[in-house]
Structure formats: C-alpha cells, structure tokens
Write a structure and sequence with these properties.
The complex is a heterodimer. Chain A has 9 helices and 10 strands. By secondary structure, chain A is an alpha/beta fold. By secondary structure, chain B is mostly helical. Chain B contains 23 helices and no strands.
C-alpha cells in the first residue's frame, strides 16, 4: 500500500539531513506505527508522503501510484491529518467539511452518510454550525480528521493523531483504525505514546536522526526476549 | 528592576524583529534588497511629506507673528500631535495590550501586571515617536530660530518634545483598560478593525479635503487669514485639552512662569502614568482574562438541515471559489483593504472638483458636449482602472492562506484549477469595483449606455490581466508565515510590487489611447485596439501563471 524507496531530504543546503535514505514498505491491512525521538524526521517523512514537502531523492508510492509522477491521483487515496491543525478559522465546521467533500469529489449521498457518521462518532454534531475559530484544540483536530476521512481513502496517514483527543474520541479512533485495516486498507501513524503503538500496531518502525534503525512486529523487535517492553527497546535503540 | 529590563529587552527584540533581522542579514542572506527598498521608500515618501508639513508650519508661524502670537505654531503642533496620538493610540493600545499573541506566555510568568503593562506601554511609546518627532521637531525648530530663543528654550523644548506623546497615550491607555474591564470588546475584535479602518479612511479624506480647499498660488495668505480668523478656535480647542497650551506656555513664557507651566506639564504626565500603572495592577489581567472566554452558539444542526447542506455539491473550482469568497468577506482586514482603495480613489479624484464648484460644472458641461464625450469616456475608463486595481486581492491571494496553505497542497486539485479559482474570485471583486465607480460617472456625465457597457467590459479585461500579474507576483514570493491576517496584506511587499506593475500597464495603455485619440482614430477603433492589446498580453500571461503555479505549488514548503 505504501512503498518508500531511498527517500532523502536535507535542510540548510544539505547541512542537516532530516531524512536519510529511508526505505519502507507497508502492506494492505496493516496498522503501521512510526516512532522516534523529537526531531528524528518523523514529520518530515510524513509530509513527503502526502506531498507537502518535495524529497531530494527517492520515490514514494501510495496504493500503487507514484506520488511524484501522478500527485493528484495519489492524493485522492490519502487521508492526512497533521500534528498541528491549522484550518480555516472563519469557515464553519460544516462549510469546511463540504469544501473537503467537494474537492475530493465525494458524491452527495455518500457525503451525507459519512459526515453524520463521523460527526456522531466524534460528538461534533452540535458544534458543526459554529465557526472553527471557536473550537478547542481537540475539536479542531477532530474536524480535520473528519474532513480527511470523508472520501474514504485507502491509506490514512496521521501525524500524532491521539494528541489533543479526549479518552473517548481517542478510543473510538483506535477502533476505527482497526476496522479500516480489517477491510484491507492501511493506516500509517506517528506517535510518542508507546503503549498505543504496542497495543495497536501490526508493525512498528523506529527512526532516529533521519535513518530507519528498526522495523518489524513487536516480537521481531524483541529478538525473542519476551520480557522486554517497547519502552526499553526504544530507549536502547535511540541511545547514542 | 532587573526582571523589568530583561522583559523590556526581550519584548523590544520581538516587537521590532531585531533578532529576526540580524538572522536575515548575517545567516539567511535572503532577499536583502527588500528591507532596504522599504526603508528607501519610507525615507522618500516621509521626507517629502515632512517638507510639505514644514512649509505649512512656516505659514502658521508667519501668520501668528503677523498678529503678535508667533507661539501659535507650537500650540498647533502640540495639539495636532497629541490629538492624533490620543485617537490612534486607543486602537494601537487595544491591539498591543489585549489582542497580541504573547499574553498567553506573559500571564503565567511571575510578573506584576504593571510590569507587563509598563513594557507594552514603552513599546507603543517608541512606535509613537515615529509620528511625534516629525510632527513636533519642525515646529520647535521654526519657533526657536524664528524668535532667536535662548538655551533654556532648547533644553526645555527637547524634554517637552520627548514627553509630549506620554500624556495622550496614558489617557488612551486608561480609557482602554477601564473599557476592557467592563465591556467585553474582545468578542468584537472584528468590529474594532472595521472602526479603525474607517477612522483612517475618513481622516485621509478629511486631510485631502482640507489641502484641496487651499487656493493655489496664495497658500501663505490663505493660512495667515485662516489663523487670524481662527486664533480663537485654536485656543478653544486648546482649552478643551489644556496640556498643549501648558507645553506652549512652558516654552514661551519668561522666567518662573514658564518653568511653572513646564513642570505642570511634566508633573501631570508622570502623575497620570503612575495612575495608569496602579490601574494596570488592578484591572489589566482581569480585563484580559474576562475577554478570553470563547463564546459558542452550539447550535445543533437538524437532520433535515444537514441533508440540505450536504446535498449541495459543487465542482472543485466552485468549491475553491466559495472558500476564497467566504474567507475574504469574513476577515474584516481583508474586506476593508480590498474595498477601501475602491471607495477612496474615486473620492480623492473628484475631491478637487467638488471643492471648486465652478470648475466642476465647467468640466461636466465640457464632458457632456458630444464632441468631447468619447474623450470623457476614455478618461472615465482610466479612473475606473486606476481605482479598481488599487485593491490588493490578487497580489495577496496566496499569502492570505498563510499556515493553512498545507490544505491547498494536500487536496487533489491541480494548481491550475486552484489559481483559476483565485483569478475568478479577484476578478469578480474587480467587476464590482468597476461598476461602483462607473455608475456615478455615468450619471454625472450623462454617458451613453453603450459607452458605459464598453468601458466596463474593457475595464474587466484589463483587470483580469492585472489580477493575473498580481497572482504571478504573489506566487513568486508568497508571505505564508504570519500570525495576524493584517501581516498578510499590510506588511506584504507583493501588494506594493503589484501596484507598480499596474501603474506600468496603465501607463502603456493610457499612452496608446492618447496617441490613438490624437491621431484622430475613431472611438470604437480605439476600444478595439485596447481590447486586442489586453487580450494579446493576457494569453501568454495566463499560461505563464499556470506553469508557475504548477511549479510553485509543488516546491513551496511550509
């Protein structure tokens, strides 16, 4: 579903390597957790995957479509939520959702069903007539999430999706992610909450200083040592 | 005191962007010509204004001398400065005290409200010196030199000039703090923006009206007679705000009396400053925090309503157009700047005529003459184009997206369609402006209907070209990093660059039209040729815009 080959990106004219020769393959039906310390290159990788940043090198393919060669088609298959939801403050929630549905060309019937389903799930139905300006951080996060999932994309790419969500929404989102993947789709998300990664993810990738230093199921990462928690593995691997 | 100085230093740094500027010049070395160009423009523009103002003051001084009251120039300058600072200070203080983003960082710090307020006050004060010094110093120097004043005059004067902005600013601050404590204006921040803009607009028109009403050639006599007849008026206004009289008397009265007024002025300033700090401790944070509570209607949408709304599907270009339109209309600073130019320019252009009724009727009757009607229509077209292109809608179109630009990069809509939606949006507003300006001219000049339609049509064609160029300029170097929408439009050099581009096009089109008219070519041919030139320029421009959009929407990183 997601295929990343020798992806590189550097800042300050090549002096800072944010992402360094990254290779990654995420299969259909898989929830993939992307971990790493602050500044490791998680958000840079994600932004390249959704077309917000242009890679210096390498290729990304989403649902079999090359992001660089056919960006519009690739984007149609992605539902992306950034870590910091900057949205149009002066639109109402409903106007924003309708805008997203229009640009992703979601037919009226499907649009109606999905909007009411997602709003109900995130408990946003009452707020959707208000300007987004008046929303709390978590509500903004949820409206962006709703907007990103309206077109029922095969691949969800979520940057720190649980941050700012209340326990109930967070729980529902996790269930929703599982359901989505059980239908043969893919979820790729970054997180700092290791317990979530441990419980939810089929596979985990750990990135440090732009390089992918470990990838596999939790068992594979443990190297058979049953007692080792993900926290210990993470601390060991990311130690300098 | 140490914490206060450190707070002041940091705030000065942030507010005037000192570190950012240093970084730009030493590390980034990106677009260094920009600040230099801005500085150059400010020096040229401000310098010429200063010369004009100094001549006005000289007139006031000589007029005052004629009636034995040369000090009137000082009262005039002090009064004008203090009134201006008082009025604009209210808006300035509101934005820095209550609407700035740094309050969330400052309130949790272990600082007394008075310290935070003091620092913010000093920052505003420094900003106000940029207005106060150029307004006061010329009057101070003219009087000093004109009356051969002694050293005490110069010493006292320098102190008074430096103290002058404090008093009106303190009064404005006290007013704002009390107001914010009892009325939750924060909720209507948008209203404040509109009020502030309108005030600026009226002031601009008012100043223009005044300067237009001075008869040309004998300005000096006019001012002298104005002063002779209005000494009472200046004193009357001065009496309502006695400190400006005290400042004058402190400077011009001899001996102890002068010193007394001088101390009275300074004492009052300091006393009120102390009152402000005391009030600040008591009310500043309370007022700020009470304005923080967000109000939501929490109006649930019924199932039927939802169905109705969700069923309204639109094509991506239409959806983008609707987004542009709503965000533009709902952000007051965009709306005001977008239409202010359109309202203001025709006003300013008709002002010289309106104040001189004889000339006005002469021009109008000339324009109504069928012989000159074609020329009048062409001139009207020129006015319309000039005015309608003064809006900054297309040249800030990408910049206005700011941090939400990620959405435009994310959505599966081609860059071509995205800029097309922006072009349609800005051209719609241009059309509204064209009609708004054309209609008064149509009625004033008894224009024939077909001429009205033709000039609106050609005006629209030209505006599309102008908007394409505006979009190209904004795409080349958009300003996406901003915190307040104001920065996207007012502190955006693209708007200025686009205006230069528009002037250039105007110059070429106007030149061609005049040339053709002088050659005696018939009216319809002139319109035809103009339209053809505009279309010939537009076609490659729009392809250039699409190509650039394709490149930039991919490469722009936020």
């Amino acid at each position: 579903m997601i295929e990343i080959k020798s992806l590189s990106k550097s800042y300050n004219k090549g002096r800072v390597k944010a992402v360094d020769d990254l290779n990654l393959h995420v299969k259909p039906g898989e929830i993939f957790g992307f971990l790493g310390p602050n500044g490791a290159g998680k958000t840079t990788t994600i932004k390249m995957m959704v077309g917000l940043l242009t890679p210096d090198n390498g290729s990304i393919s989403i649902a079999g479509i090359d992001m660089m060669k056919n960006p519009l088609e690739a984007k149609r298959n992605i539902g992306y939520v950034p870590d910091n939801p900057d949205v149009y403050d002066r639109l109402t929630g409903m106007e924003y959702l309708n805008f997203m549905a229009d640009v992703y060309k979601v037919p009226a019937k499907e649009r109606k069903e999905r909007i009411s389903y997602l709003l109900e799930m995130f408990n946003l139905t009452d707020a959707v007539g208000d300007l987004i300006k008046s929303y709390s951080h978590g509500m903004k996060q949820k409206i962006v999430l709703t907007g990103a999932l309206l077109h029922n994309p095969a691949v969800w790419i979520l940057d720190e999706p649980m941050v700012g969500l209340d326990p109930k929404s967070s729980h529902l989102l996790k269930e929703f992610m599982r359901k989505h993947c059980d239908q043969g789709n893919t979820v790729f998300f970054s997180t700092h909450v290791l317990e979530v990664a441990e419980k939810l993810c089929d596979r985990i990738g750990i990135i440090n200083k732009g390089k992918l230093i470990a990838i596999g199921t939790l068992d594979e990462l443990r190297h058979g040592e049953q007692a080792d928690s993900l926290e210990n593995i993470f601390l060991e691997l990311t130690e300098i | 005191m140490k914490t206060f100085m450190s707070l002041l230093k940091t705030n000065l740094n942030v507010y005037f962007g000192i570190s950012a500027l240093k970084y730009r010049f030493t590390k980034e070395k990106k677009r260094l010509w920009e600040p230099i160009l801005v500085l150059f423009a400010v020096v040229i523009g401000g310098g010429s204004l200063l010369v004009l103002y100094s001549f006005l003051l000289l007139g006031v001084f000589m007029g005052g001398q004629g009636i034995g009251h040369p000090e009137i120039v000082l009262t005039f300058a002090f009064m004008a400065t203090q009134l201006l600072i008082l009025i604009f200070g209210i808006f300035y203080i509101m934005s820095v005290f209550y609407f700035s983003n740094d309050m969330n960082i400052l309130i949790p710090l272990p600082l007394r409200p008075a310290e935070v307020l003091g620092v913010k006050f000093i920052i505003i004060l420094i900003g106000e010196y940029l207005i106060a010094l150029p307004m006061l110093l010329p009057a101070f120097i003219i009087y000093g030199l004109g009356t051969w004043s002694n050293i005490f005059y110069w010493l006292k004067g320098l102190i008074l000039v430096l103290m002058a902005p404090i008093l009106p600013l303190v009064i404005a601050a006290i007013f704002v703090i009390l107001l914010m404590r009892f009325i939750n204006i924060r909720k209507s921040k948008d209203l404040m923006v509109v009020l502030g803009s309108l005030l600026g607009l009226f002031l601009g028109i008012g100043v223009n009206f005044l300067t237009q009403s001075i008869p040309q050639g004998n300005e000096k006599e006019f001012i002298t007679s104005l002063i002779e007849s209005n000494t009472g008026l200046i004193e009357a206004i001065g009496n309502k705000f006695p400190p400006s009289i005290w400042a004058t008397l402190g400077l011009t009265s001899p001996g102890w009396q002068g010193l007394g007024y001088f101390l009275l002025f300074i004492g009052l300033s300091l006393l009120l400053l102390a009152v402000l700090l005391w009030l600040g401790n008591a009310f500043f944070y309370k007022g700020y925090l009470s304005g923080q509570e967000v109000q939501r209607k929490a109006k649930a949408i019924s199932a039927g309503d939802m169905e109705k709304r969700a069923l309204k599907t639109a094509s991506p270009v239409v959806a983008l157009f609707k987004r542009e339109w709503k965000l533009f209309i709902r952000t007051p600073i965009y709306f005001m700047n977008g239409i202010a130019g359109m309202i203001m320019v025709p006003f300013l252009m008709l002002m010289p005529l309106a104040t001189q009724t004889e000339k006005m009727s002469e021009v109008v009757s000339l324009a109504k003459d069928p012989k000159y009607a074609p020329i009048a229509a062409l001139v009207s077209l020129g006015i319309m184009l000039f005015a309608s292109s003064m809006n900054l809608i297309s040249s800030t179109s990408i910049s206005r997206e700011g941090r939400t630009f990620w959405i435009s990069k994310l959505i599966p809509v081609s860059p071509k369609d995205q800029v097309l939606a922006k072009l349609i949006h800005s051209s719609c507003l241009s059309l509204i402006a064209l009609i708004l300006i054309a209609l008064p001219l149509y009625f004033l000049l008894d224009m024939l209907l077909y001429r009205l339609i033709i000039i609106i049509f050609i005006g629209l064609l030209a505006n599309i070209l102008i908007n394409i160029l505006g979009l190209i300029i904004d795409l080349l170097r958009p300003k996406l990093e901003w915190n307040d929408p104001q920065e996207a439009i007012k502190q955006n050099l693209n708007a200025f660059l686009a205006m230069l581009a528009v002037m250039f096009i105007m110059f070429i089109l106007g030149g061609i039209a005049v040339l053709l008219a002088l050659k005696g070519i018939s009216e319809l041919w002139i319109y035809g040729i103009l339209a053809l030139i505009i279309v010939l320029l537009s076609v490659p421009s729009i392809y250039g815009l699409f190509a650039l959009a394709h490149r930039k929407y991919n490469s722009l990183e936020i």
